[in-house]
Write a structure and sequence with these properties.
alpha+beta; 6-stranded antiparallel sheet; 2 helices; disordered N terminus; metal-binding; iron; CyaY; ferrous iron binding; Frataxin_CS
Length: about 120
């Protein structure tokens, strides 16, 4: 019984972290709404960002692994939450660095996101 409660608490914390990340992503994308051709939608914790020429970035949660997955035109990334940030489990890079770079490449414009 105790494990179930712990799991539910971990799950709740994971959803709080995912919601926070998705809100920050939305806020940052909205800053460029009038500058670049992009559209995004969120459904069931899957965010699909569409840039010009139908270039996509997809971000989703992997609840069972407690990860965020990011799929870009060039690669796929898996992020674990460590030390108050989402860190790529392959490269050790921060989510925002990889995401910012991918958005810049796929929009053909240098984008700088606020992480706050």
């Amino acid at each position: 019984m105790k494990k179930k409660i712990t799991f539910q608490k971990e799950n709740k914390n994971f959803y709080i972290l995912v919601n926070d990340l998705f809100l920050k992503i939305e806020d940052n994308l909205n800053l460029y709404d009038n500058e670049i051709d992009l559209d995004y939608q969120i459904q069931d914790y899957v965010m699909t960002i569409t840039f010009n020429k139908k270039s996509l970035i997809i971000i989703n949660k992997q609840e069972s692994l407690q990860q965020i997955w990011l799929a870009t035109k060039k690669n796929g990334y898996h992020f674990n939450y460590k030390n108050n940030q989402w860190i790529c489990n392959r490269s050790g890079e921060n989510f925002w660095k990889i995401f910012e770079n991918a958005c810049s490449v796929q929009s053909n414009k240098i984008l700088i996101f606020s992480k706050k």
